[in-house]
Design a protein that fits this description.
By secondary structure, the chain is an alpha/beta fold. Helices cover 42% and strands 14% of the residues. The protein has helices spanning 14-17, 23-31, 51-62, 75-89, 104-116, 132-139, 158-168, 189-201, 257-271, 276-288, 291-313, 339-350, 376-394, and strands at 38-39, 99-102, 122-127, 143-148, 173-177, 205-209, 233-238, 251-254, 317-318, 326-330, 352-353, 355-356, 367-371. Helix 4 runs parallel beside helix 10, helix 5 packs across helix 9 (257-271) and helix 11 packs parallel to helix 13. The relative contact order is 0.17.
Length: 395
């Protein structure tokens, strides 16, 4: 087995050496070793990819579709994305020049960050948030400016955004996750309008991560910054969550032609093109799978109500989740803000895995994220175990 030459130990990308592995994944791996544990740690749908989508991929393979696809994605898929965005959000994007198909939403984020950020640029990241943003931004040499939204119910207000810009300027960009991971919060049309006015006033580029856009519950509705500032917003989404296609790795980007030109170029540098049969499955999902997210949404809404009601009965507090498939709950008072200790104790003693809130950035301390993208049976048993754990604490 070869070992690296000792005089090459410092021959690496310095930015990468400054970044640690995902704490969320590391914690999940640690608790996975506990026998009988039920994990509510990872945002992984327990539902299966719908059969008609799987069949489209099989048919594509059997048709020997095994050659390089266009670097921005198959024309039929770019058209399907364009039609979907028009149908769902009344947005108009030219499939020939304003849409790019990527390897998952994570690949899309890399494409965008590497296209718009330079070393030293500052980008606002409202927190708590999916922590991979920080790492991807830092790889470009840019600086993520964390903005704690916990005092405003985990919603970034226009006033708070302007205050941060005044204090931290110059700022180049902002990224907004809506619906939110980890809090499940959803921005209203009025809230997005207010943010868009501040973004435009201060000449920022905005990036909206809308991967959970199909998973919004109750009377809430998903809106997009692109509905208010289409000339400066870059929209990212994909099929992973609403269509239970996390392993297929299919994402997309939509934005103004001038910025998309570089994003498409970057996507080509990073991946050349997305796998043919995955694109065929995505075409089927977007063109003929209109009912699939509706079915998934109904299942998740039921689970949310079950978990929210049960957790509130035993004293957990939360800002009401409205989308995605997470609950971000305040931990019992006995633990103060030590969410890591609470999560470790819950895993060891109750055999339920939840993710410490501090892993999602400032404002997450004292909370834990619970994913309800798990079976109702698992959720019932998890709630029973959590209830017993909390009752033993109280006694």
């Amino acid at each position: 087995m070869p070992h690296l030459a000792s005089n090459l130990n410092n021959h690496f990308n310095e930015r990468l050496s400054e970044l640690g592995p995902s704490k969320i994944r590391a914690f999940d791996q640690k608790v996975s070793t506990i026998p009988g544990i039920i994990k509510l740690t990872i945002g992984e749908p327990d539902l299966n990819t719908p059969d008609h989508i799987k069949q489209a991929a099989v048919d594509d393979i059997l048709a020997n579709d095994s050659h390089y696809a266009p670097q921005s994605g198959k024309p039929e898929l770019r058209q399907a994305v364009s039609s979907y965005l028009k149908r769902s959000l009344d947005l108009n994007y030219d499939p020939n020049s304003e849409i790019c198909i990527s390897v998952g939403a994570t690949g899309a984020l890399n494409d965008v960050f590497m296209s718009i950020l330079n070393p030293g640029d500052k980008i606002i990241v409202p927190t708590p948030v999916w922590a991979l943003y920080f790492q991807l931004i830092k790889v470009t040499g840019a600086i993520p400016v964390q903005v704690d939204t916990s005092k405003d119910g985990f919603i970034l207000t226009p006033e708070h955004l302007q205050k941060v810009i005044d204090q931290q300027g110059p700022i180049k960009a902002i990224i907004l996750t809506d619906p939110s991971n980890p809090t499940g919060r959803v921005y209203s049309k009025q809230q997005l309008l207010g943010l868009s006015q501040v973004i435009e006033k201060n000449n920022l580029i905005s990036v909206s991560d809308e991967i959970y856009g199909e998973l919004v519950y109750g009377n809430n509705k998903h809106h997009s910054l692109s509905q208010f500032i289409p000339d400066r917003n870059i929209l990212i989404s994909g099929l992973s969550k609403a269509y239970a296609m996390t392993g297929w790795r299919l994402g997309y980007i939509a934005g103004p032609q001038e910025v998309m030109k570089n994003i498409i170029k970057m996507n080509a540098f990073l991946v050349t093109s997305v796998t043919d049969n995955v694109q065929a499955a995505a075409i089927e999902a977007l063109n003929n799978g209109h009912e699939d997210p509706i079915k998934a949404r109904s299942i998740y809404a039921d689970r949310l109500e079950f978990m929210k009601t049960g957790l509130e009965k035993i004293g957990f507090e939360m800002s009401t989740p409205q989308g995605a498939f997470y609950i971000f709950a305040k931990i019992p008072d006995q633990f103060g803000n030590d969410d890591e200790t609470f999560a470790n104790e819950l895993a060891k003693k109750a055999r339920v895995g939840v993710t410490p809130g501090r892993y999602f950035g400032t404002g997450g301390q004292g909370y834990v994220r619970m994913s309800y993208a798990s079976s109702k049976e698992n959720l019932k048993e998890s709630l029973r175990r959590i209830t017993n754990f909390v009752e033993n604490l109280n006694n």
